[in-house]
Predict the structure.
Amino acid sequence: MWLQPIIGLTGEDFHVKNQIIIFFYKRYMKTSKLILTVFLCLGIPVLTIAASEPLIQNVPGRNTSSLNGKWNYIIDPYETGYYDYRYMPYDESPAPSNGAFYLDKKQADKTELIEYSFDKSPTLWVPGDWNSQDNRLLYYEGTIWYRRTFDYKKADASNRVFLHFGGANYESDIYLNGKKLGKHIGGFTPFNYEITGFLKSEGNSLVVKVDNKRKREAVPTLNTDWWNYGGITRDVTLVEVTSTFIQDYLVGLKKGTENEITGYVRLNGPTMQQKVRISIPELKITSEVTTDSTGKATFIFKPKNLVRWDPEHPKLYQVELTCNDRKVTDNIGFRTIETRGNDILLNGQPIFLRGICIHEENALRGGRAYSAQDAQMLLNSAKELNCNYVRLAHYPHSESMIRLADKMGILVWEEDPVYWTIQWDNPATLSNALQQLTDVITRDKNRASVIIWSMANETPVSEARTGFLKKLATRARELDNSRLISAALEIHGNPANPNERIVEDPFAEFVDIVNFNEYVGWYDGLPDKCDQIEWNIKYNKPVMISEFGGDALQGMHGDNRTRFSEEYQEDLFARTVKMLSKIPQFRGVSPWILYDFRSPKRMLPNIQDGWNRKGVICQNGNKKKAFYVLKDFYDQMELKYKH
Ligand code: GCU
C-alpha cells in the first residue's frame, strides 16, 4: 500500500494499528492522498480497504454467524450493473449512478428510474454453483450478482467483524452497504475482509459480483477438462473477534521427532504484545506465551504418550488457543511425513499410497461439492475402494473435505490449479498462482491428512514453465517445510524404442516425489500395450502415478477392445497395475477418477453427453467392473505395507 512508507507501518500493523478507514476513488487518488495525510497528521481515524487481507485461519473454530441460504441474484452477461455506458466501472466513478447494482437501489418514488431490483429477483442457494441450480445457467459463463440482507449486533462494541468466503469462482467484487470491500481473484481459496467500520445493526446489504469467465491469463487458464461451475460455491461467514485476536497459528509435530510439538501464534490488532494461552488438555499441556512487537510467539512442547495420527488411528487432539479471554479451538492430528530414498515415511514407517483422484463435484447431484455431506459421500466411496489416500484434483477443495479426511484417516494431495498451458511469462499469472498456493497452505497447514502440496498438473516443459514452478515450490517450502512437494510431471517416449516411456522432467529435481500421469492403453494404444512398456525413471526418489484410466459407460458391455465398455476399462486397470508394479520406486497411485464428472469437452452422444466417463463409479452411484480390480489390488498392497 502506497501509504505505508509515509507512516512507516508494516503491512499487518498498517491494516489495523490505527483502525484507518480510507475511502478513495481512483479518479481522486491525488486528492485523497492529500486528504489522507492531513487526516493522519490530525489523528483522524481512517481504515484501509485492502484488495485482499491476511487470512483468518480456522474460521470453524471461532465465534461465527452464517450467511448461507437463499440470496437474490441477477444474471448480468453484459455487466450492465458494473460498467456505465462508457464502459467505466461504476465503483471507480465519483458519482455512483442508479445503474450501479452494488448500491442495491430501491425506487424512492414513481418518478425514479431504476432498471434492476434484487428484492424482486429470484434466489440461488449459497453455497452452491449456479450451473446446477437453474437449467438456464448450466453452461453460463459470465457475471451473476448476488445480494443478501442481514442484521448484525456485535456482542461487544469493541469487537471487530470480518466477512469470510470459503471460495467463489472465479473473480468476485464484494460490496457492503454500497461500499467496495475488494476484488478477489481465484476460484478455490478463501478470502476475508474486515467490515467493522461498515456494519449496521439492521438492514445490511451485501452485494457480490461473481464472474466465472475463463481467461488466458487466469489460473487455471482457458482450457480445462472440468465444468466451469460459477458462483459463491463455499460458505459465507461473519467472524466476530476481539480488537486484537489470534489470526493465524501452526501446531505440528516436528519432522524427525516422535513427540516434539512446535509452532507459532500470530496476532492481528492494535496491541501486538499479549499473553496467549495454548492448551492441549488430553496431553496435559497448558502453556502461556507472550507475543513480540510483531504479534508473533513460538512454542515447543514434549508431551509424554503422544498418540501419532495415521490412517488406522486418525487421532485428533483438541487444541485451544486463548487471547483476551477469546478461545479458538481446533482438532489437530500429529504426524510426520518425509521421504528416504525411494520410500515415503509416515511417522518413520514406509507407506504405499492407495489412492484415487477426486474432482470437487457431487456427481449424484451434478454440481460443485461444498458441504460436509458431499465430502462424506466422496470419502466414503474412497474408503469402499480401500484407499488410504486421495488426490484432490485439480484445485484446492473445500475445507470441509480436508477436515473430514483428518477425521477418517485419509491422506491428501492438494493441488494449485496450475493446469496445462498456463501463461508462464505473465507476472500477474505467477502472483495469482502464488497467492492461491499461499492461501491453501495458510488454511490447511494444521491438517494432518494433508501430506503433499502439488504445484501443477501436466504442464508442457519449457524454461519459463520450469522457472514458474520452481518459484511455487520455493514459496511452498518457505510456508511449510513439513510436507512433501510434487506435481504431475511430463513423460515422453523414445523414437528408438517404442515400448520405452521416460520420466526426465527438469522440474523433477525440485520435488520430493517423482509423480506423473500416464494413459498407456487409452490415449496411447490398447490395454495390452501395457504388457510391453518399460519405464525409464532414473531418480532415487519415491515414484507415484497420479493418473491412469479410460472411459467406460456403466452398463455398456463388450470385449477388452471395445472402447467405452466396462470390460475395456476393467482390463486396462488390471494390466496397468501390473505394469506399474514393475517400477522399483513405485510407492503410490491415484487412478483417474472416483466418479464420472461433468466436462464440456466430452460430448460423444449417448456415451459421454457432457460427462468424462473415466470414473470407477458412474454419476448415479453404480460401480463399474474396474472398481473391483482396483480394490483387489489395494487389498494386496495393504497386506504388503501393513498400513
Ligand atoms: C488428464 C488431466 C485430467 C483429464 C484426464 C482425461 O490427465 O489431468 O484433468 O480429465 O487427463 O483426459 O480424462
